[in-house]
């Protein structure tokens, strides 16, 4: 069962690409917005680095119960 939910708040994304650079495993650019490849993941891994590095903090990670 997935333990984390990862989302990009697209309205806030400025398309800088830092997340896709920090974590190509789980982020890709789709036009000028970032897209999460897997929204539900078991291990947070580099998705946390992507969230920490986003200049507008628009990557949301929710720990699931
Ligand atoms: Fe957007 Fe932040 Fe990635 S601004 S492109 S979600 S690093």
Q: Using DSSP, what is the number of strands? A: 5
Distance N to C terminus: 10 Å
Assembly type: single chain
The helix fraction, in percent, is: 10-25%
Radius of gyration over C-alpha positions, nearest whole angstrom: 11 Å
Q: Choose one word for the global shape.
A: globular
What pattern of helices and strands is seen along the backbone?
EHEEEHE
Q: Mean of residue pLDDT?
A: 97
Written account of the structure:
There is one protein chain. This protein is α+β, with helices and mostly antiparallel strands. Helix content is 22%, strand content 31%. The chain is built from two helices and five strands, in the order E-H-E-E-E-H-E. It has a three-stranded antiparallel beta sheet with strand order 4-1-5, with helices on one face. Strands 2-3 form a two-stranded antiparallel sheet. Strand 2 and strand 3 form a beta hairpin. The longest helix is centred in the C-terminal third of the chain and has 9 residues. The chain is globular, with a radius of gyration of 11 Å.
Features:
single chain, binds FE3-S4 cluster, alpha+beta, 65 residues, 5 strands
Topology diagram in text:
Elements: E1 4-8, H1 18-22, E2 27-30, E3 33-36, E4 40-41, H2 45-53, E5 59-63
Antiparallel strand pairs: 1-4, 1-5, 2-3
The structure holds FE3-S4 cluster.
Residues 8, 13-19, 34, 54-56, 58-59 line the site of FE3-S4 cluster.
Q: Would you summarize the structure shown here?
A:
The protein is α+β, with helices and mostly antiparallel strands and 65 residues long. 22% of the residues lie in helices and 31% in strands. It contains two helices and five strands, in the order E-H-E-E-E-H-E.
